[in-house]
Design a protein that fits this description.
This protein is an alpha+beta fold and about 725 residues long. Helix content is about 15%, strand content about 35%. It has three domains: about 260 residues, Rossmann fold (3-Layer(aba) Sandwich); about 190 residues, Galactose-binding domain-like (Jelly Rolls), CATH 2.60.120.260; about 130 residues. It has a twelve-stranded mixed sheet with strand order 1-2-3-4-6-5-7-8-9-10-11-12, sandwiched between helices. Strands 13, 14, 15, 18, 21, 24 and 25 form a seven-stranded antiparallel sheet that branches.
């Protein structure tokens, strides 16, 4: 069936009903049987949305069934666009949310971006490319013309889906009425994974996305010339990012933080205290004039329902009401939705335990910036154990120095998120400054700012700052952190080398946090120059220096005294979400392989390696043609290595592999593998990436790229 969009650039939406008729019948039975009494039944259908240049994007619809067939009922539409392969890799974990919102009366549209997953076209040259954003605008126009659509579109997603929702909203296309962005960034340079805080880093995500974008088009997985030209032979994105090691238009054109005035529609933000993107919400509340509903809880980079750690939160139930307010045919005034709303979780202060399933604390609602916040400034000065205090002292200026160990800091993980272990081992390679034992509780809510009057013995160095809680038994919990690339101390756009041994002021805002310091605890500020492998070690620095007992070295804490004026909220648990699609049920659930993480110390060459391995097996059922069912096995292996006695020499060796096993034993097993080798010396980065494709008869194709990049203040 063909639906005209009435767009001047001619778009078309094709829904292939005949090939999916059996699947739709199964969908009707399955999804009505699981619905609640007042929920909508729905069908699942696959189709195409054609772009102006003729490329077709693959779309999966969850279509609510009108409650009265005699009425021309229409529904608001929720769009998600991702490169994460909706027909295989992301199918199982995406479905429960689509099931929920479809039953609530939303027409759901899930689209693979151009050149990925089941869509046609060439893989874009980067994340959030201009082509991707323009395609999204065309998709929105097409969705508005669907017979079941009421013409009002919401765009949503977590991580990538939040990133591109924000960037599409910055264009203000017709028919887009609101967006929901979870765990997303407003600054693609300093607040994303490539140059966090202005410092180069590389993690498992870099491997995964550079591998995934070269894989075959689903669901047929055909190997032909079009596949090679459009995907396999396309340059991996990492090369593009390493060519843009400085902040600039490459990063800023998609960063809301530099274009707040472009946002003119309501946004629902979700942030996590254990997620690296948590600063986006408070900055949006400060800078956007549009209605904002912001929820910031104790979560990692995941949806709040079924969160681990918890407490979980019923975001879907809340978002459904919010969506209906903004996407309904007639929007009625609602004071809570029409203004800024900020709900946050105040952590009670937990022990450093990576296995915690629940975080103690309380929910509050307040304006932002918070009223009743007192900024308490603590100076750093020498004492018996180095001290952090509000007291003045007559002691003269003094200098602390730190011998830098490039491999230190592996306990900090791969970015400013996730649950972290006891920091005592990492603090041993840091300068630490402790307050006196607290005699009363202190609640911290907001951004902690740190100022250092510091120097180094080289032309470039990184400073990594952690705010910590020292428990009475000596255990140390990380509360928040931040870092600065010393060359960006004055301007991010134009890095400037340090003058060795020359002291300069460094300003480092730490990431948003909440915390309660309990009586008997101490506040600690920890300062180091390495956090490996989160940050790639500096090239030649060996020693850093910090001036104490000066007005230029201090930490400012946002102490919140408003608990008495803000009643605690009752926690709302989410409905169960363990709903699986029929084809996943037919062949079994997605299974994960045991993950491995290990720090390897080599005393012979004085090096330290961080090894991480993981894998998942996906069972890909085909309810129409069972003989096409397949199994997709994935594996990832990363190895960071750095030398403690040879400045600048660091490496990252990684590989990822997909093994596609057909159900028909007469067909070949396909192996697709990507290998990344990145190394550095004092002056350059050296990058090599290989892709290989093989079957049972041997190698089908190989492609290799190599390039050397100047370190350029990294």
């Amino acid at each position: 069936m063909l639906f005209d969009t009435h767009d001047s650039r001619r778009q078309a939406l094709l829904i292939n009903r005949s090939a999916l008729s059996a699947f739709v019948l199964m969908s009707l039975f399955f999804f009505s049987a699981n619905a609640l009494a007042d929920d909508y039944e729905y069908t699942i259908e696959n189709g195409w949305i054609e772009m102006p240049d003729g490329v077709r994007l693959s779309v999966t619809y969850y279509l609510p069934v009108p409650s009265d067939p005699l009425l021309s009922e229409t529904f608001p539409v929720l769009l998600e666009m991702l490169p994460y392969r909706k027909e295989d890799i992301s199918k199982a974990w995406a479905h429960p949310h689509y099931d929920y919102f479809a039953r609530q009366g939303f027409l759901m549209a899930k689209v693979d971006i151009r050149g990925t997953g089941s869509s046609e076209g060439q893989t874009p040259e980067r994340e959030y490319s201009n082509t991707e954003i323009e395609d999204a605008i065309d998709v929105i126009a097409a969705l508005a013309q669907l017979p079941l659509s009421n013409g009002k579109i919401g765009m949503w997603g977590i991580s990538w889906g939040g990133f591109n929702s924000i960037q599409v909203a910055m264009r203000n296309p017709p028919h887009l009425y609101a967006i929901l962005a979870a765990h997303s960034s407003d600054d693609l340079y300093t607040n994303d994974v490539h140059y966090t805080d202005g410092i180069f880093g590389i993690d498992e995500y870099t491997l995964s996305i550079n591998h995934m974008t070269g894989f075959m088009q689903s669901p047929d997985y055909e190997i032909n010339d079009a596949y090679f030209a459009d995907r396999f032979d396309r340059e991996p994105w990492l090369f593009n990012y390493m060519r843009h090691s400085r902040d600039g238009d490459f990063w800023r054109k998609g960063s809301m933080g530099w274009k707040y005035e472009n946002i003119q529609l309501p946004i629902y933000f979700i942030g996590g205290l254990f997620d690296g993107y948590r600063d986006t919400l408070p900055r949006a509340l400060e800078n956007l004039d549009t209605p904002i509903r912001g929820i910031l809880g104790p979560w990692t980079h995941a949806w709040p329902n079924g969160a681990n750690p918890g407490p979980e939160w019923a975001w879907r139930e809340d978002a459904s009401k919010w969506w209906k307010h903004w996407l309904a045919d007639e929007v009625l005034p609602n004071e809570e939705y029409d203004q800024h709303y900020f709900q946050f979780f105040l952590r009670a202060g937990n022990k450093p335990d990576t296995s915690l399933s629940e975080i103690d604390g309380s929910w509050f609602v307040s304006d932002w910036p918070l009223p009743d916040v007192e900024v308490q400034t603590l100076k750093l000065f020498p004492g018996d154990n180095d001290e952090l205090t509000t007291s003045s002292t007559e002691k003269p200026l003094s200098i602390d120095s730190l011998n830098i160990v490039p491999s230190a800091g592996s306990d900090l993980g791969e970015w400013w998120g996730q649950l972290l272990p006891d920091m005592r081992a990492t603090d041993a390679y840091s300068l630490t400054y402790d307050s006196d034992v607290l005699t009363e509780a202190l609640s911290l809510v907001g951004i902690t700012n740190v100022s250092l009057f510091a120097a180094a013995d080289a032309t470039n160095a990184n400073w990594i700052i952690r705010l910590e809680d020292v428990h009475p038994d000596g255990q140390v919990s990380v509360i928040t952190g931040g870092a600065i690339n010393g060359s960006q101390r004055m301007r991010r756009l134009i890095p400037t080398s340090l003058t060795p041994h020359e002291y300069e002021e460094l300003s480092i805002p730490l990431r948003f946090t909440t915390w309660t310091f309990k009586p008997g605890h101490r506040i600690r500020l920890a300062i180091s120059n390495s956090a490996f492998p989160m940050f790639w070690p500096s090239a030649s620095v060996k020693t850093s220096y910090l001036t104490l007992n000066t007005e230029k070295t201090f930490v400012s804490l946002p102490i919140w005294n408003g608990m008495a004026n803000h009643p605690q909220l009752t926690q709302t648990r989410s409905q169960a979400s363990n709903v699986l699609t029929p084809d996943i049920i037919r062949l079994g659930p997605v299974t994960g392989r045991p993950a491995r993480s290990e720090v390897i110390i080599n005393k012979l060459d004085n090096s330290v390696s961080v090894l991480r391995e993981s894998g998942v097996t996906y069972y890909l059922g085909d309810t129409v043609q069972p003989e096409k069912s397949r199994i997709l096995e994935t594996q990832r292996h990363t190895l960071h290595n750095t030398r403690n006695d040879s400045t600048g020499h660091t490496s990252y060796k990684a590989w990822a592999e997909y093994r596609l096993l057909p159900s028909d034993t007469h067909q070949d097993t396909i192996r697709y593998r990507t290998t990344i080798n990145l190394s550095s010396d004092e002056t350059d980065f050296h990058l090599n990436i290989q892709r290989t494709l093989t079957n049972d008869n041997g190698e089908i194709r190989r492609k290799e790229w190599s390039e050397t990049f100047p370190r350029d203040h990294q």
